[in-house]
Every structure is written in structure tokens, then in C-alpha cells.
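Q: I'm writing up a methods section and want to include an example of the input and output format. Could you take the sequence below and give the corresponding predicted C-alpha cells, formatted cleanly so I can copy it straight into the document?
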Amino acid sequence: MRNIAIVLCSLLSLILSAQEFNPKTINLSQKPEITDFSFLKEELKDVQVVMLGENTHFDGNVFEMKTQIVQYLHQEMGFNTIAFESGIYDLWNAQKSINQGQNTKEAFANSLFSIWAKRNEFQSFIDFYDLNKKDLKVFGFDYQITGNNGTVNFTKDFFEYAKRVNYKIKFKQEDFELLLESITNSGMFDEEDISYEQFKTELTSFKTKISQQKDSEEKFYWNQIVKSLLELGHDAFTKEEILSTFNTTSYDNIRDKQMADNLLAYLKQNPEAKIICWGANAHFVNNMSSINEPILKEFVSMGSYIKKELKNKVYSLAAVTAEDSIYLQNKWHETPIKKHSFEYFLKEKNTSPHIFISSNQSKMQILAWNRLFSPITFVESKLNELHDGYFYFRSVTPSSIIDSVEDNKVFKTKDIQTTNLSEPKDDELKKTDLNEVVIYGKRTAYQVMKNVIESLEKNYPDNPFSSSMKTNIQAKISTITYLDFDFIAEQYDLGYVNHINRSAKKIKELRWNKKSDFLSESLREYHGLMYNCPIKYAPFLKKGKFKKFIFQIEETKIYNNEEVFVIHFSSPRNHSTFTRRVFLSDYSGYLYVNKKDFAIVKIFENWSVTEFPEQFREGFNLKNLLSKYTSKEYKNESMLTDFTKIGEYYFIIQSTSVLFGNVYNNTSEKEEFEITVNSSWKNFNIQNPKLIKNKDEEHSFEKVKYNAGFWNDFKF
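A: Here is the clean output for your methods example:
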């Protein structure tokens, strides 16, 4: 009998999904005016919290439409608080900075996830907020650390507040900072310095101390921040990521519950606030009970807690599209629309570029296939229970990164002496690598590294400069070379010190020596080319972090006619906070440090992979005879970087990176692969650098034509 009931329910579901689906809709033009959203006044009557969702965090025109909705809700309905799916501390710091007169754009850039703050299509929101900042407030409901506010200022403010309320934190500030970096960047709780039990006990005790303070905005925020940290730490310590095609799973449950707690606490603290939430559709779902899809059905959304508490005072408005492809990892991937799904019906209407559909109608009270939790996978659920309303976008356009030229205005600058940056003479470039060992004094490796870090600004450029780069790339599978090509590129760099931005590159000339079956499409496929400056990125050059590395002076020797320390380094920790690699690896190498000025003149780095994530095993873009290889794994990566002093500063003049691993076919048979990248630089210009804007970058190999005349005469 039970089985019959299940079959009948399944048949009923199919009938409902296949029946004529024609809910009432409101059509909007391609570029709606603010007044075109007037229908929301009745739809949102008596609503105090509006949750504006987005299907992905990369749809630029959705950002622009959401900004218009925010503008209408503020101007016509009195909404006065914008709450973002970003860090509670970060946005509190942003609000204080704006109140103190800081540039609004800078305040958001330092607090929001960069998926919004550093995208061109989000700038209309920042402009709107800036014009109305006297009447608006911003709030972050996420438990994560999401911007420079959190990474740079948080631990200092945390310890200063503890001191003000006479509470003694029982672990070191720098250890706490490293732990939070590990949680944020690596997603793991690194117990090397602070155990989870210490973390939990100390923060719980601190929260009790906070609760004893007089009511104030500061008390409210620090109470919620510490609660958020406790949940963030618990998440990092206990959970294992669930691999699926869904945007959210039970992996997100702790986070969603705390996000709801933060928002409801803010509303209790500010009962007159009318709040607009900005985040992902999945977090704003009202009710998940109609979903039976394995994995997904275990997810408990932030919105479900809010709906249970506020009932009709909260309204969830989701963005939905019927795009049949998605842009991921610099490529378009097909994502076919399921027939008779919600998205299929919307696409078939095709009457307007934007459509609004309210869930408050009988036609929406059905089970329907939809793609609201994944760009790929359709699930069956009740549309009226998921969200209170939907905005349909006939097409979406990927968001674009803000041109970095604007950032140059806020970079640290210093007086630049007129310097002749002529190229070093040939005899200066010849490396003299003598074998004899020179006796050195009692200076320890850590003293040397401290001096190296203190001398970075003196030894390396911290202002923009341009250069020319020549690179050769070769790829082998087994013993056969399938790829060999050279290219010349212009490079623009913001400096090696005080900047973490990657250099901008523009390919000018290209020569395929061997192309055959191995297809390489873009510079972005080569991490070592995009992020080729260890002075910027090496973890052992960061204050507070270098002490966690193991350093040993192996010898002193003569290198390039200068006496250098040869220092071996290694990291006792294998995650990205200490390795800058997404895969777990043993990270070690050698440094050549000039004894005279403590400049690193040569760096050898090696990553021996200990665990390669499943999600990164997708194969190379292979074709023809090599298309049988469908997955890959990295076994080892190494990078050798040489510096030469030209004028006042040391510049990278040469680097070699080698990536080694295995490729597998469908029957799990494997072959070894190796990719070698050799690069050299010249023509350094720090006086009048040639700027390369983001929009002018050229990373595509296919767009550069072979110039026989250039290569016939070429000398680098």
C-alpha cells in the first residue's frame, strides 16, 4: 500500500509539472526606470526585511537590476539598511569608516567580498549608497572574514576591545591572526598554535564577559562577532566538504544558522530598521520541506530561520535565468534547460527581457523542476515555498573586474630618485657559482630573515613599473613533447612590496614550435606566469608568519660576485596559509641572501603534493590522440627565481617553473606529464611605465598571429 502511494504521488508530480503553467506576470523593459518597480509597493506591504537573491555571484546585469530595486525600496518605501552576505566585522568597520569620512568605494572594497566590490557592474550601487549615505546603514550578516578590514585590522581591534573590558586573552595575538587566516584561506582549523579547545573555551569565556557590559552598539557587535567566530571555528574544525553540483548543502548549515542569528540580532538591536539583504538565492529560501533530492534536502537555509521568526514581515525575491551555458574558469560550459521546468516555461514566454512573478497565486503552488540551487542540476520543489517572488532575466552577462588603474591612486608611494635602469652588462649576468664554503659568524637564520623582511622596501620596487617578458613553454606526456611555444609579452607591475595584485600582461608575439595534440589557450592556465613574484607572495616573507617556518643557514658562498647566505626553509604546515597552493603539500626550498644588503637574490621553492583535491582533477584541454586522458593529478611543483639589481632595486630577470604529475584515461591507466615554463625579463621602466589596463590585457594565445619577420630578426 505504501509503495502504491509513492507511485501515485510521483505520477501526480509529473502531471503537475507537465500541465499548462501560466502564472500572472509583470513585464519590464530592457532598461527599466525606478518607477517601473511601483508594483513592489503592494507586493511588499508591511514587509520589514526584503531578501534580494542572485542565482550566481557573477551576473553583472543582475547586480545592476538589484541596485535599481534597492533604490526604489529606499526612496519609495523607506528601507534604510543594506545587509550583505559579507563579514559582520568587515561591514561594521566599513560603516564606521564612512561615518568618519572615508571614501565610500574604498570602504566597500575593504569589506565586501570582491565578487561585488571589485566588479564594474556593482559600482552603480556604490554610487547610489554614496549619494544617500546619510540616510543609509550597511550591515554584514556573514560569519566569515571577507575583506581587508578583517585581514588587516580585526585581531588588533579584537585584542584592544578585550583590554578595554579588562579581559585577558590567553593566547598570542599573532597566533590568533594566523589561525583566522588558516580558517579563511584554507578552510581548516590549524591547531599548531591554538588548539580548538583553547579557542572554544577562551572565546566562550570572552562572550560571557561581553554580556556583562552596558548595552551599546559596540557590545552588540562584539557579542555577535565572537558568536560568529565560535561557529566559524566549529565549522572549520568539524566539517568535511560535500562535493556536489549544488551551490549549498548541509556543509553550509552552521554558516546559514549563524547568518540568520546575526540578522535577527541586528533587527532586535534596531527594531525600526527596514532591511534589504543582498546575497545568494539559496541562502534566502523560505522553506526547504518540498525538496527530496539527496544531499540538498539536508540543507537548512538562513531564510527558513528568518521566515519562521518574522513570518509575513520578510519577503524573499529570487533572481532566475534560463541561460543554457555558464562561464566558469574562463570557459563557457553548456547547461541545457530541462523541458517543462520553471526556467523552460519562462524562456518559452520570451515576451520581455525581465519578468516578475509573484508566488502569491495558485499557479505557483505546484511542484516544478527548477535550477535554483545549481547552474546544472534541476530539482523538484514547490515554487511558492522556496521564494515569495521571482525576477526572471532572459539573459545574463558576466560581471567584469574593475580596471586596476584606479587602485594606483591609493598605493603607497615614495620619492623616486632619477635612476638609470639600463640593462646589466653581459658579464654582470654571468653567474659565478663557487663550491667553496665561507665561514660565517654567529648570526642566526631567523635574524637574517628578520633583516630580509625589514629591508624589503629598500631592496625591491614598491611603485609601478613595466618590462618586457620572453617565455618558452613545453609540455610532455611520458617522453613525448606535445607542446612547445614561445611568446613575447609586455608586463605592468604595481611593485613587489606592499602589493598582492598580480601583474598585468599583454601578449605581443607568438611562435608555435610544436602544437600537435596538446591545446593551450591562455596564460591563465599557468599559475606561475600569472603570479610570478615570490617577494609579493612567499608566506615566509610575511611578518608574524616567518617565525613559524624552519630556517637553517647551510653555508655562505660567492654568487654573482657577492657573498650570500644560503638558507634552507621549510614549512611544518601543508595548507594554503603557509604554502599558497590549494592542494596540500610539503613546502620547502632555498634562499640566497646578499650579506651586504639582505636582499634575496635567488629563490628556489618546491611543493611536494601530499593531497590533490578531487575537484581539481579535471583533465587538460586535450584533443585527438590525447583526448583519452580525462583527469590529472599534480605530484610536484618547483619554481626557481633569479633577481638582479638594476639601478636602485632588484628585479626578477629569470624564472623557471616545472609542474610534474600524472594524467589518467577512463580505465585509470596513467602516464607522467611535465610542464616547464622558462621566462626572462628586460627593459624595466619605473620612471614612465607603460600601463596595461585590465581591458587591454591579452592572455589568449589564439588571438596572436605568427609574425615571421619578427621572429627571424628576434634577439632578447
